[in-house]
Design a protein that fits this description.
This protein is an alpha+beta fold and 201 residues long. The chain has helices at residues 15-27, 30-36, 44-52, 55-71, 76-87, 112-115, 139-150, and strands at 95-98, 101-104, 118-124, 131-136. Among the domains are: 15-71, Arc Repressor Mutant, subunit A, CATH 1.10.10.1400; 82-141, no CATH class. A hairpin with a 6-residue loop joins β3 and β4.
């Protein structure tokens, strides 16, 4: 792969750093880029992480990536437009249905924007004849991506549900009180005191 044309950052890159940037742009693997740039494989992870976070290296990577996007005509606006097509697609633009069955609209009747919303069309045979399955790209996924790009996602990072672990200990039950002879199963205790004659002597 030809080396990317790198914009000169505020601080010039060394030859090794420039090689690292060029190889990092191939697959985004910092450790592999460090090895290909001549760093020791034994320290590739540390070297790649350190190089990727150097200000001049970050600037060079960002500049090269921006140039790539410019060359292919990719921009934030284009991504938003494509996501909006999928998010707001209407199934009635692609087929009709009534008592006689479901009919797919002819390909020539679809605009380029509508055709871009179709993920797949599968034709299958069966005992009752041919069948069609039309699948559009996911609307919910596109809407979620739009919300994130537009900054309107209501689920802020600090508001998302977090796992809560509650640790508690249950004290052992108190030992039962000593058995009260008055309430034991053997019945009330007999009075063994000497009997007294209530008659006056």
């Amino acid at each position: 792969m030809a080396a990317e044309k790198l914009a000169r950052p505020a601080r010039a890159l060394t030859d090794r750093q420039r090689l690292f940037v060029e190889h990092y742009l191939v697959d985004g693997n910092a450790a592999a880029a460090a090895i290909r740039a001549g760093y020791s494989p034994n320290r590739a992870n540390c070297a790649g992480h350190r190089l990727k976070n150097l200000p001049q290296v970050r600037e060079a990577i960002a500049a090269a990536q921006a140039e790539r996007l410019r060359q292919v005509g990719l921009s934030r606006e284009r991504v938003l437009e494509e996501l909006a097509r999928i998010a707001f697609a209407d199934i009635r633009d692609f087929l009709t249905w009534d008592d006689d069955g479901v009919r797919l609209r002819p390909m020539d009747a679809l605009t380029a924007e509508q055709a871009a919303c179709v993920a797949e069309i599968v034709e299958s045979g069966g005992k009752s004849g041919k069948g069609l399955r039309v699948k559009l790209h996911g609307k919910l996924t596109a809407l979620a991506a739009l919300a994130r790009l537009l900054g309107t996602d209501p689920r802020r990072e600090d508001e998302r549900p977090r796992q809560v672990i509650v640790l508690t200990s249950v004290p052992e039950p108190d030992p039962p009180p000593p058995e009260d002879p008055q309430t034991s199963d053997r019945g009330p205790a007999r009075d063994t005191s000497p009997a007294t004659d209530p008659r006056p002597s």
